[in-house]
C-alpha cells in the first residue's frame, strides 16, 4: 500500500506532527497523580511517541501560552511543569490562604476524571472546603446548596456531585463529620 496524504503512515513512517497538539502534550502533565513533578522532553517523547524536536516545539508553545513553566537544570537539560497557580486554582478568583497540607490533600484527592474534568472537581472540592471554613458548622444540604450551583464539576445532579466531593472533603485536614453522622460538618481549624 502506498503512502497517502490521508493516512501518512501506511508504510510504517512516524506519526505526523499534526497529531501532537499542544493540548495533547499538556495532557501528559495533567493526567498524572503528581502534577507538580517536572517532566523532561524525553518524558513527553516517551508518553506520546513523538520526536525530540516535536516535543520541544510543543513545550515551547505551552510555555509561551503560560500553560507550563520551564527551567534549565544542567548544561543541556531542561524541565517543564504546570505552574503552581494552575494547580491550586485560577488567578481569576481571589485565593483564600490555605495551609499547604490542604492544597496537597486537594491535589491528591481521590476524585474521578482526568485533565479539565479533574481540575473542575478539585476546584469544587476547594470551594466546598472554603465554604466549610467560612461556615464552621454546617449541614451537608446547606453545603451542597451553596457550592454545587457554582461548581458542578461535570455532575448533572447534586447527589452525584456529593457522592464524589463528600468523601474527599471528609479526608481533608481540619474537617470533621459529626459522630452521629447527622450531616453536620465541622471545620476544626484555627
TrEMBL record:
Q: Region entry Disordered: which residue ranges?
A: 1-24, 89-113
**Basic and acidic residues bias locations:** 1-10, 95-107
Please identify the protein, giving its name as recorded. ArsR family transcriptional regulator
**Native organism:** Haloarcula hispanica
Amino acid at each position: 500500500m502506498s503512502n497517502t496524504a490521508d493516512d501518512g503512515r501506511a508504510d510504517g513512517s512516524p506519526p505526523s506532527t499534526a497529531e501532537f497538539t499542544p493540548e495533547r502534550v499538556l495532557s501528559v502533565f495533567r493526567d498524572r497523580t503528581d502534577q507538580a513533578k517536572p517532566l523532561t522532553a524525553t518524558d513527553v517523547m516517551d508518553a506520546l511517541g513523538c520526536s525530540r524536536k516535536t516535543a520541544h516545539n510543543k513545550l515551547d508553545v505551552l510555555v509561551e501560552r503560560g500553560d507550563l513553566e520551564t527551567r534549565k537544570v544542567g548544561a543541556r537539560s531542561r524541565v517543564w511543569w504546570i505552574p503552581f497557580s494552575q494547580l491550586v486554582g485560577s488567578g481569576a478568583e481571589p485565593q483564600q490562604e490555605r495551609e499547604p497540607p490542604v492544597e496537597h490533600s486537594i491535589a491528591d484527592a481521590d476524585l474521578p476524571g482526568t485533565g479539565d474534568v479533574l481540575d473542575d472537581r478539585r476546584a469544587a472540592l476547594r470551594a466546598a472546603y472554603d465554604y466549610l471554613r467560612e461556615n464552621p458548622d454546617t449541614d451537608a444540604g446547606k453545603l451542597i446548596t451553596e457550592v454545587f450551583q457554582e461548581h458542578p464539576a461535570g455532575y448533572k445532579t447534586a447527589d452525584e456531585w456529593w457522592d464524589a466531593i463528600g468523601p474527599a472533603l471528609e479526608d481533608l485536614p481540619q474537617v470533621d463529620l459529626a459522630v452521629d453522622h447527622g450531616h453536620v460538618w465541622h471545620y476544626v481549624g484555627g
